[in-house]
Design a protein that fits this description.
The chain is an alpha+beta fold. The protein has a domain of about 150 residues. It is built from twelve helices and eight strands. It has an eight-stranded antiparallel β-sheet with strand order 4-3-2-1-5-6-7-8, covered by helices on one side. Strand 5 and strand 6 form a beta hairpin. Helix 8 packs antiparallel against helix 12 and helix 9 crosses helix 11. The longest helix has about 35 residues. About 30% of the residues are buried.
Length: about 375
């Protein structure tokens, strides 16, 4: 009896027969269009955002003057104000605070000042020891990374729209990727086939990382879309109350600063004050801000607004009393950068930021291999 002939089955990663057109689903074509062809740029934006997330901590590692000790709730801002004023009696103090380092104890507080010749400087103060730990000037690493991530270091609006429009790309890539990956829920523990071709293991790794990063891609994509819409639409924040007149130099006495702090603590007991901001323009108030009984909001959400001439409180912003839409305005930043839970959440965001950057890298590999294979097929 003769042995029946066997018909070899094509491998999953086998190339198409020469001259035979491969019909791809629409979701696959869209995923390739929106994702793979923008992978390099998307990877760059993801990587800069990941670095920006821990840029303060990276500065802390290399700059000893940024290291402080404080619990964040008993900082004496009037005393720090006096310390800066004694050190630079002719300077104008623009602001004093933590600058999105939150109430983290291992960071110093920072005063931004302007010297009589117009030079801007930063003065670092350890609130526990009440000493100046150092000074600095020029753009910080944190500022550069944020500007590179948001604006590509270009001083116009269009780079911001280009960067934030990638939020649409992320959401479309996520949806089309799931539509393309049949029964995707089975792939969470499917290991990549490392011993197969580069195209095969890169595709397997791309799908695996993509599945475990679904929540992060959704979050980053939606907040990026929000930034795009927020910049294009009218402001949804309640306007600042107007002060009686523009604040005029010289810098106020520490006793007045103590009065502003007392008024703030009367409205928000046990508030962790994160900053005092002097007026920037005519009719602007003094702003005393901090964290108080509101989770997942940026530092400047809870605030007391003071007339710098009369020292009278002319407005209060309480995160717990905001409308849902305005509350979301103040939630987007902590969600996008993961800085609402200290170092722990920042490290989680860094991990998944690197995974998202890796998704872009495997996307480049897939696209390059697919292009090379298509070129060989038509020869």
């Amino acid at each position: 009896m003769s042995r029946p002939a066997t018909i070899p089955l094509p491998r999953r990663d086998a190339p198409a027969e020469p001259g035979r057109a491969v019909r791809r689903p629409l979701a696959f074509l869209l995923h390739s269009l929106f994702g793979l062809k923008l992978s390099l740029f998307l990877g760059f934006v993801c990587l800069t955002g990941t670095i920006a997330t821990i840029s303060h901590e990276l500065e802390w590692l290399v700059q000893p003057e940024l290291r402080g000790t404080s619990n964040g709730r008993t900082d004496d801002y009037a005393a720090m104000w006096a310390l800066v004023r004694d050190r630079h009696p002719d300077a104008y103090i623009q602001s004093l605070g933590t600058y999105d380092r939150a109430e983290t104890g291992y960071f110093v507080r920072q005063a931004d000042i302007v010297l009589p010749d117009g030079t801007a400087r930063r003065v670092y103060i350890d609130p526990s020891r009440m000493i100046v730990t150092g000074e600095g000037s020029g753009p910080t690493f944190h500022f550069v990374m944020r500007a590179l991530h948001y604006y590509l270091l270009l001083p116009t609006d269009w780079p911001f729209y280009v960067v934030t429009s990638l939020g649409f790309v992320l959401i479309l890539s996520l949806v089309t990727g799931l539509l393309t990956y049949k029964k995707f829920w089975r792939g969470f523990f499917r290991t990549p086939r490392w011993r197969r071709s580069t195209r095969t293991w890169a595709g397997d790794l791309h799908r695996l990382v993509g599945l475990w990063s679904l929540w992060f891609v959704t979050l980053i994509g939606l907040t990026s879309v929000w930034y795009f819409v927020e910049r294009a639409a009218p402001s949804l924040e309640t306007p600042l109350p107007e002060a009686r007149t523009r604040y005029i130099l010289p810098t106020p006495e520490p006793a007045r600063v103590a009065g502003w702090i007392a008024a703030t603590r009367a409205r928000f007991p046990e508030i962790a004050i994160t900053g005092i901001q002097m007026p920037y323009a005519e009719s602007d108030p003094v702003i005393v801000q901090g964290q108080w009984r509101a989770w997942l909001v940026r530092e400047r959400t809870n605030a007391v607004f003071v007339d710098p001439v009369t020292d009278r409180v002319i407005g209060v912003r309480d995160a717990g009393r905001l409308s849902p839409l305005e509350r979301w305005v103040h939630m987007a930043d902590p969600l996008h950068f993961g800085n609402f839970g200290g170092v722990a959440t920042k490290l989680i965001w860094v991990l998944f930021g690197l995974l998202l950057t890796g998704l872009s890298a495997t996307g480049v590999i897939i696209f390059a291999k697919r292009t090379a294979r298509a070129a060989q097929a038509v020869r």
